[in-house]
Recover the amino acids of this structure.
């Protein structure tokens, strides 16, 4: 397995097309990076290149703790990781269907989830998700990813990882601070609400007020 992975991802692979080089990624992240079928491996397609690059670097440097990803990223140069990130960012393929809500849309839990995502909670010093992730929660270039089209299990696992220190990014690690302010009930509410939302017809990224190259400007993200 590892011989195959290193042979395909190695920068010395010659003129092999990038789409062929990243085939091993599809074993977990689905065809063309659309997302894995088990609800844990997230979508890569169409996410901002800066975000994807930063996560590869975070895995390489141990700020994100998942052994398989770290072993795959460590042999790759920053330039090659950036080329991979740009490849996946360029893919505009259909999203998998959103998860059906387990609670009625007007239940207290779902209403609380919507409040946290759209309005935030000033008393708890929790900003609205859309204040960073875009008005449609579809992300902002160059560094902030979409929150829609992701399963609740994955979103919940990432909030837990930030809370437990198993996931981090270069300072300022804003998501770690936000995750620690959420109660378990609030984390469950906002992830369930986000997972139940239909991805809009237009999946274009918003544009953040920052145009520095992703390789030189680390941003916190989801």
């Amino acid at each position: 397995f590892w011989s195959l992975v290193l042979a395909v991802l190695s920068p010395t692979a010659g003129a092999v097309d990038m789409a062929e080089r990243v085939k091993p990624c599809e074993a977990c992240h689905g065809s063309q990076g659309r997302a894995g079928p088990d609800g844990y491996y997230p979508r890569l397609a169409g996410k901002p290149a800066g975000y994807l690059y930063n996560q590869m670097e975070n895995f390489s440097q141990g700020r994100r703790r998942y052994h398989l990803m770290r072993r795959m990223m460590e042999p790759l140069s920053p330039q090659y990781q950036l080329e991979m990130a740009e490849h996946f960012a360029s893919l505009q393929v259909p999203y998998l269907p959103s998860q059906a809500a387990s609670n009625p849309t007007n239940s207290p839990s779902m209403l609380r989830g919507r409040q946290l995502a759209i309005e935030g909670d000033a008393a708890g010093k929790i900003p609205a998700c859309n204040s960073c992730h875009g008005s449609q929660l579809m992300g902002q270039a160059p560094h902030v990813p979409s929150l829609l089209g992701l399963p609740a299990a994955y979103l919940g696992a990432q909030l837990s990882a930030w809370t437990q220190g198993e996931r981090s990014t270069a300072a300022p690690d804003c998501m770690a601070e936000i995750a620690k302010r959420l109660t378990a009930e609030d984390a469950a509410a906002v992830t369930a609400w986000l997972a139940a939302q239909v991805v809009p017809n237009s999946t274009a990224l918003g544009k953040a007020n920052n145009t520095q190259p992703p390789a030189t400007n680390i941003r916190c993200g989801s």
Observations:
- The first strand starts at residue 140 and ends at 141.
- Confidence is low (pLDDT under 50) at residues 209-222.
- The beta strands are 140-141, 206-207.
- Residues 152-164 form the longest helix (13 residues).
